[in-house]
Amino acid sequence: MIAIDSMMVCLDLSDIDEVLVRFTRSICERLPVKKVYFVHNIKTTELSDEFREYFGDLNISNEIEGNIADIVTEHFANCTEHEILVSEEPNTEVILADLVKRYSVKLTLLGKRMSDKSTGALGTKLLRILPCSVLVFPETARFDIANVLTPIDFSDTSVHALRLSKSLADQLGLNLEIIHVYKLPTQYFPLISEEKATRKAEEVVKGKFADLQKRHQEIADVPYTLVRAAGKTVAERIYMQLEKGKHDLLVVGLKGHNPIPSLSLGSVPTELYNMDIDIPLWLVYSEDVIK
Fold first, then answer.
1. CA distances, 53 to each of 8, 89, 115, 136 (Å)
2. How far apart are CA 283 and CA 54, in angstroms?
3. Looking at the DSSP assignment, which residues form a beta bridge with residue 35?
4. Which residue in 129, 113, 105, 117 sits closest to 17, CA to CA?
């Protein structure tokens, strides 16, 4: 069973905050969450001289905390134990990573605007630095989740994400589908028949699925789809499958074996995050990777 001891919700004082708080309530009503931390960091380097001149000794932390408290009271009150944390630090990513460690946060919720409104730079940095799984909620996403898609490449990372997805589906009565995107070694065409290569590739992948189902009986009945990349990236094919299948949640495993943090996220999760996907994206680290 999926249970979340502590969850962090990152707010930025924009209109998406209300949406995030309401979605947090939706999560807490469906999953056992012990405590939620609503957080915001005042980036001190962005406070202009004009601001300081006009407002002087104004305690901006108290003002912001009060603003967040109003939203939480309206959309979250009496739902789950929670706390509002407002900090004043020059580096938002570092202070949020510190909060994750300090409060043993298992899941962080991030809001995401469409690309025409935001570069997404901070979100990408947070994905690389936060030592916990991250649930990205686009501003256009719905709260109701019925159909889940999980890509798999047969790595330990993706198998962990798949098993979590299956637990979530069983717990909440959701429909789960697996997708595997495969590529053909096109440099050998036309020496090798493309039709023959495709048939062979699918035989190999089906064998891998059969072996996976033997090792993890709980996913034996989960339907899977094989998709050839065929000139598209893996992320692009996953995106096309999302649109085709009308899914409500995408669960992707994150790599963590690379000692260089900037390279540990993986190219597919990075590309998916940067797309204008209008459903929640759950980026999952295993406990072993986090440790």
1. 33, 20, 34, 37
2. 42
3. 6
4. 113
Helix (H) or strand (E) holding 256: none
Question: Parallel, antiparallel, or unpaired: how do β-strands 82-89 and 107-112 relate?
Answer: unpaired
In CATH, the number for domain 144-291 is: 3.40.50.620
Reported as a single tens digit per residue, the pLDDT across 153-173 is 998 889 999 999 999 999 999
Q: How many Cβ atoms sit within 10 Å of the Cβ of residue 131?
A: 16
Dihedral sign, Cα of residue 229, residue 275, residue 126, residue 80: negative
Instruction: Decide if pLDDT at 50 tops 60.
Output: no
144-291 and 1-141 share a CATH fold: yes
Sign of the alpha-carbon dihedral angle for 114, 118, 121, 122: negative
Helix then strand count (H, E) for the chain reads 10, 10
Q: Compute the C-alpha angle 206/238/272, nearest 5°.
A: 135
CB atoms under 10 Å from CB of 179, counted, come to 22
Give the helix, strand, coil percentages of the chain, each rounded to 5. 45, 20, 30
Domain edges within the chain: 1-141, 144-291
Cα-to-chain-centroid distance, residue 56: 39
Domain 1-141: top CATH class: alpha beta
CB atoms inside a 10 Å sphere around CB 279: 21
* pLDDT bracket for residue 240 (50, 70, 90): very high
Q: Out of 82-86, 114-118, 143-147, which region has the weakest mean confidence (pLDDT)?
A: 114-118
Strand partners, 107: 7, 133
Q: Which residues pair with 41 in a beta bridge?
A: 87
Q: Residue 280 in contact with residue 135, Cβ under 8 Å?
A: yes
Q: Which residue is listed with tokens 């962080």?
A: 108
